[in-house]
Amino acid sequence: MKRKLQTLAIALITAIVTYIVTTYVYFGSPIYTNKLVTNSKVSKVIWLLKKYYYEPKDISDQKIIDGAIDGIAASVGDPYTEYFTKKEYDEFIIQSKGTYFGIGVTIEPGEHYIEVVTPFEGSPAYKAGIKPGDKIIRVNGINLTSKDIEKAVNLMRGPKGTSVTVTILRNGSSKPIDLKIVRDEVKIKTVSSSILENNIGYIKITNFDENTPQDFYNSYDKLKISGCRGLIIDLRFNPGGLLESVVDIASNFLKKGQLIVYLKDRYNHKEYFKSYKNGDTVTPLVVLTNKYSASASEILAGCLKDQKRAKIVGEKTFGKGVVQQVFDLGDGSAIKITVSQYLLPSGAYIHKKGIVPDFKVNQPKEYQDKMNVPMDKDLQLKKAIEILKDEISKSKF
């Protein structure tokens, strides 16, 4: 009996010590954490809401917990530190991995309705005949306006093999068109390419996800085979993405060992990311940026500029110089926390400052915030072509 009591006492002490140590490691102070969790004001507010709020169906323990965690994340005042509910985290993973089940179309809010930017080549939407500029007015009979982007996305996604009816308005057609589309696995297209005048290659990157590097290499190889003698990398409206992906793409244009970017955390620990191969250091490059080019886009533009590998044309970039890490919370939800800042090879910290282009060029007023600009109206693209024509005429490769 005495031995059993000793064993129980040891187990109890071990549990208490483990709790204190774990709490200290994760939260800094067990006393502070205990005060936070058992705070009488927090408890009273929850009690008052559950007792007096006039719509009891709107009050649930899960909603309170989600709201509380969301508030805690927001309390640091950093727009990039945020809490993801399970639904939000699922969407985040889709964006990172670059695949989902749906119809495969990029959309944006128009003046009155949701407008199609582009259907992904080979996707169900593409095969069904959806075109850029089509206006989506209904999905499965549910009316939609330009404010219903999220609702439209949820309605168009679904299990592989199931069908969805998308009703569109098309310029030149007097009546709405119903298109029955069978959902399939869709690979989010983040890279597109073409050959412009004077054998100038053009690659647009809309986001940096897991598939982006391989898609970029495939596009670049095809351009080189086609006789590409200069390259434009279009990062306009690109909000960023995965650090690993941008490091991979940057390595394609640098010498092995050249610095791409380095991170610095709260403890002043530094982590350096360098080119892992000898890439193409000969082909003239121009990078297009605007005020919506952020994060990973700024790393690519900034490192190529600092390493004197490319000229930057367009507008000053957004200015996001911090890096986030996602922590899974074990129940399908997660929290994304800003854990470090990044610095360019020159040591520049561009957070809230952005990267100033080598050649500042503004778009015509009517196209300043438009993703699809006719080529003959795209002043930034025209300037990039002009620069590369001059570079090509001087080059001997």
TrEMBL record:
Look up the domain of life of the source.
Bacteria
The name this protein carries in UniProt is Carboxyl-terminal protease
Where are its TM segments located?
7-27
Q: Tell me the keywords, alphabetical order.
A: Hydrolase, Membrane, Protease, Serine protease, Transmembrane, Transmembrane helix
CDD domains documented for this protein? cpPDZ_CPP-like (cd06782), Peptidase_S41_CPP (cd07560)
Record-annotated PDZ domain positions: 96-157
Question: Biological process GO annotation list?
Answer: proteolysis; signal transduction
Q: Report the GO molecular function annotations.
A: endopeptidase activity; serine-type peptidase activity
Protein family (similarity comment): Belongs to the peptidase S41A family.
- InterPro entries noted in UniProt: ClpP/crotonase-like_dom_sf, CtpA/B_N, PDZ, PDZ_6, PDZ_sf, Peptidase_S41A, Tail-specific_protease
Q: Which GO terms describe its cellular component?
A: outer membrane-bounded periplasmic space
User: Does Membrane appear among the keywords?
Assistant: yes
Pfam families recorded:
CtpB_N-like (PF22694), PDZ_6 (PF17820), Peptidase_S41 (PF03572)
